[in-house]
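Kindly review these tokens for lecture notes.

. . .
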Amino acid sequence: MSNKLLFVFFHTIGFASFGQQGIPYNLKQEDQSIILPAELREVSGITSIDAKTLGCVQDEAGTVFIYDLKNQTIKHRIHFAGPGDYEGIAAVGKDLFVLRSDATLFHIHNFQSEKWSLDSIATGIPNKDNEGLCFDAKNNRLLIGSKSKVAKGAEFKNLRTVYAFDLKKNKLDQEPLYRYDINSIKDFAARNKIELPTKPSKKNPNEEEPALKFQISGLYIHPESKLLYVLSASDYYLFVFNHEGEIIHLEVLDPQKFNKAEGIVIMQNGDLYISNEGQSGDPKILLFKSKHP
């Protein structure tokens, strides 16, 4: 089935066939709140190095920060490039990939070695602003989530895309892996009686309409369920999609707790970490332990 036909399937019946499903996290109450050092004030992406260590990037510096969760300290820094808008990071074996917002990937080979090396890859994604990056181990590829629409025009206004970068071919798949329709997500919320924040309607300012931008800021594949967790920092949402790209869970996040949630990682034991920039306070990483035994 072509990608174009796949989108039509999702748009017409795919979202309608699923109701709201639970997730193994209580996002209303974190199990731990970790205050990050000031140099990670604009933390924009996190990834799992091992059970006690995260790799982090922040918006303005071409530096990977290796962060020790137990001791809550930065134990190592890898300066890989000059200033730029770095938004995502993914660990793949002995390597790290960092995503710049213009869809350039920086591949750090053997990052734990003093003799690490670097390649940069212009992926060619047409979206102007890209923030989400994660490793899809099952399919040996990176997933890249775009914050912005794919092109100008009314037909693209409500579409958001996730692209796949094939690590074996070292090449981007030209067609998006997933196309998400904001209107279909609003329909999902309405059917499942999920109360969304509202804003004045553009067509009728006296009426309210759901406020849903769906600007992807982070994404991660759950290591057990293989479901795709997606953050939208600008409007405070967490979405969960199944293997076919259909939405199965939508959660409205507390703006006070998730002031700018741009990083997400799920550890092998199921524990969820979400990082928040320190716009009006300290940058933080929130831990939500898995409620499944």
Q: What stands out?
A: Confidence is low (pLDDT under 50) at residues 1-16. The longest helix spans residues 3-14. The radius of gyration is 18 Å.
